[in-house]
């Protein structure tokens, strides 16, 4: 089964059955497949407006991501260690991902380098010694984007977004920047120009964002995530420096021959290069009703609940 959806000059082509290991979303332009990792430009003609590739629409659970290893880097659903399709659990009171989640093309978080916009951190007088976690390297992926607009996007969609700020997540020991942005077509985009505007016009969103990323892996038996830079959302100036760094690391990556293990550079930009012979799809178990359970998971502690006045509801603890 296949379907095609047009997004401006890009086409998203879906192949395979949904909820299966064979399902892929690829990007095309002028009837030629393109790599969302390498071919779609990061920058637009407008300053501070960037292209974003949507991987996971808001309020959905399937963990889609750009495949670094597969030729042309299609968007595929991630799998667990036991080769089942990966879904994020519903952590009360949230449902799935709370943003349109995706990545900036032509960016890469180098695991051997820290991406912290160090000169800006120094200018803002943040004590490096007090926050050693930010020395962690990148997570070996394109730079993540949280699009906070009101429209639910679709997997593979290319959006033009305005950058507002950033949040430094520490995900299993790796620094994993989340760039906060808004679709330039969103009614609020003219009001939102920096991270402070998000709190003004979308009160509670930044707090919910941090809380969601703190707890979302707990239902899978993992500890809560932590944050670098004291968990403080960073401003637009800092976010733009992070994007600049990640784009520079991608440029270095793209020039490497042979490429690093498990990263495919096959793209229109390197059209004469052939996919490696070992570039095969990982086998996975067929999906079943056990792969995804839509129930809510309650991650708060009993002690936290006792802070509320349960007796007003005739509940005694």
From TrEMBL:
Biased composition (Polar residues): 265-283
GO cellular component, as recorded: cytoplasm
Family stated for the protein in its record: Belongs to the PPase family.
Enzyme class, first EC level, given as a word: hydrolase
Keywords assigned by UniProt, alphabetized: Hydrolase, Magnesium, Metal-binding
EC number: 3.6.1.1
PANTHER family with a match to the protein in the record: INORGANIC PYROPHOSPHATASE (PTHR10286)
UniProt xrefs under Pfam families: Pyrophosphatase (PF00719)
Protein name as it appears in the record: inorganic diphosphatase
Biological process (GO), any one: phosphate-containing compound metabolic process
UniProt biased composition (Basic and acidic residues): 119-137
Region feature (Disordered): 119-141, 265-294
Organism: Naumovozyma dairenensis (strain ATCC 10597 / BCRC 20456 / CBS 421 / NBRC 0211 / NRRL Y-12639)
Cofactor: Mg(2+)
Gene of this entry: NDAI0E03900
GO molecular function, one term: inorganic diphosphate phosphatase activity
């Amino acid at each position: 089964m296949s379907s095609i959806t047009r997004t401006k000059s890009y086409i998203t082509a879906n192949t395979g059955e949904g909820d299966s290991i064979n399902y892929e979303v690829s990007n095309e332009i002028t009837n030629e497949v393109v790599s969302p990792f390498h071919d779609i430009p990061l920058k637009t003609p407008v300053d501070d407006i960037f292209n974003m590739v949507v991987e996971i629409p808001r309020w959905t659970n399937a963990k889609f991501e750009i495949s670094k290893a597969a030729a042309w880097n299609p968007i595929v659903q991630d799998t667990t260690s036991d080769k089942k399709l990966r879904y994020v659990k519903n952590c009360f009171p949230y449902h799935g991902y709370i943003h349109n989640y995706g990545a900036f093309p032509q960016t890469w978080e180098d695991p051997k380098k820290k991406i912290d916009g160090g000169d800006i951190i120094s200018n803002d007088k943040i004590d490096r010694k007090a926050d050693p976690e930010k020395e962690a390297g990148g997570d070996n992926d394109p730079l993540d984007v949280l699009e906070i607009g009101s429209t639910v996007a679709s997997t593979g969609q290319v959006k033009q977004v305005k950058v507002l700020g950033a949040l430094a997540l520490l995900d299993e020991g790796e620094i994993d920047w989340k760039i906060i942005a808004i679709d330039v077509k969103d009614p609020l985009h003219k009001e939102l120009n920096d991270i402070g505007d998000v709190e003004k016009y979308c009160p509670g969103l930044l707090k919910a964002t941090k809380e969601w990323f703190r707890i979302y892996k707990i239902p899978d038996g993992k500890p809560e995530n932590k944050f670098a830079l004291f968990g403080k959302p960073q401003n637009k100036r800092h976010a733009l420096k992070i994007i600049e760094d990640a784009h520079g690391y991608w440029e270095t990556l793209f020039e490497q021959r042979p490429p690093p293990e498990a990263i495919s550079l096959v793209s229109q930009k390197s059209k004469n290069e052939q996919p490696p012979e070992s570039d095969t799809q990982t086998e996975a178990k067929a999906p079943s009703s056990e792969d995804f359970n839509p129930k809510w998971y309650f991650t708060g502690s009993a002690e936290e609940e006792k802070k509320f006045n349960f007796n007003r509801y005739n509940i005694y603890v």
